[in-house]
Amino acid sequence: MKRKREESSKSILSTAAPPAKKRMVVTPWRDIAEFSAVYDWLFSKQTTPANRRKALSQMRIWSLRRGSLCPASVLATGVLVQAQLEDKQGNPNIQTTYASAFTRFFNFMSSIMQGFNMTSMYDTAKQLGLQSFIVDLRHLCAHGQELPPAEVLRHTSEHCMEWLRNYYWLPQNETMTNLDAPKLQRKDKAAFEKELRNLMEIYDLALECQLMGAEKLKAVSKLKSSTEFNKIRVYCSAKKIKTTTEILDKVISDLSAAIKRQNSSMKDLLDIYTASVLKMKYFLGAGLKHTENEELVIQATQNLFRLFAVQGYIENIFVAFVQLAENPNADDESRQGASYWATKMLQTFGMLRKMKRMYTEELDKNPNTKTVDFTTLNKSEISKLMRTLLIHSGCDLTLTLVFGECPKKPRSWVFEREFLMNRVDPLTPHSVPIFNSLLPLVEPPLTAEQRNDLTKLCDIKIQHINQEKTKNPKNLPMDDQTDDKNTSEGTTFGIWTLEKDNNWTTCALGVLPTNLSEIA
User: Fold this and answer.
1) What band does 482 get if pLDDT is binned at 50, 70 and 90?
2) For residue 415, what is the enclosing H or E element?
3) How far apart are CA 107 and CA 109, in angstroms?
4) Each residue of 5-27: pLDDT tens digit?
5) Cα separations (Å) of 326 from 310, 414, 457, 462, 465?
């Protein structure tokens, strides 16, 4: 018997239902406190008609917030409470009011089961746990020649309110919890962020290997750690490629596909994309590490910038580089790298502007000149006329990023004066090259005198920054040095003097350690 009992108890434990899985629901109430307040106003034993009116007003607000998505139980509760309040006020047409309320109550509740294809209202009531006489009463209210007595309607409304409390309000009030909104992240957004991070990491590793001369996987294995090499090896195996050049091209292709898969309405898509680019440490510093072979850096990263242009993100990436170069909290290596790429992009903007001007002049001389599509610069093969414009732009094509316009967002590649002036205040030695390269691209154009004035202003600001660094060799905040100086010299602060001899730690808050006899 004991063994049987043990076996039966084990079977009971093993067949117990698992705990219910929590699900996230968008509600019309702000938090559980707001919901609980309405619950207490409705069902507390000490509730009053005034509290019920407050509950009804709050439920109407919920209905406005969510419209047709407001829970049916809340709407059903609202119509019953409205009828009960009118009954308390002595409405002479209370039978008609209750009849309308019961009809709407049952319609709201049956809408919950509309996807279950019930054959009759009785089946719906049974599924909901409502007694069948509610359906009979609903039929009398909707189609009967005479309405039921007010007393019957009154008691039935109380019965339905108690049913609503047990069916909906009480379970919600006991199980519902607030969601920590700052930690909430959409699954598609998290997946997209992870995908971009992995692709950018592979690109950064492959770029480093290629610039270091490791083209094949065997050479890569000698250059990188086992962990980093394994990431490259797994990617190559999945994509069936063997060289770092193929890796760079394949990552560009995968990045393009990843963006196309995302819904254009996804919030923070551009921010995620830009942040992933700025996290590529080797990419940021590549131009500074390989100054003697800069043409290799430009060649290796050409397709990445063309991808930015095709996607319409080139301007956003440029602004991100500028802001990173100006950011005093970022490390110097990242700021220098951002300054390098922003300056390189400005060279390309200037080249494109000059090419457009030359094409316009040629078109004025010869209207039969072939049409030039500047979006074709994002491809490896370009027309003969476009190649001619590139050559006559005066830029060294081996040291210049060549990318074109976005097909959806063509622009003239000029900057407003406001953008330039906004660069003055956060100016740093890292952003000076960016500032100087912006001067010829400002619209309306600056005069020679204005350029000289801005250049002088730039020099003065940088000179002031260097002087501050000289005075503060330990990179301490100036306020800290001032405090040390004042403390060492004695404690004079304008008209105030700090007494060192007084024991301030023994004084109560707001009480000065003053000798009262001296005041007297």
Assistant:
1) very low
2) strand 415-416
3) 6
4) 444 444 334 344 455 567 778 89
5) 27, 21, 17, 13, 13
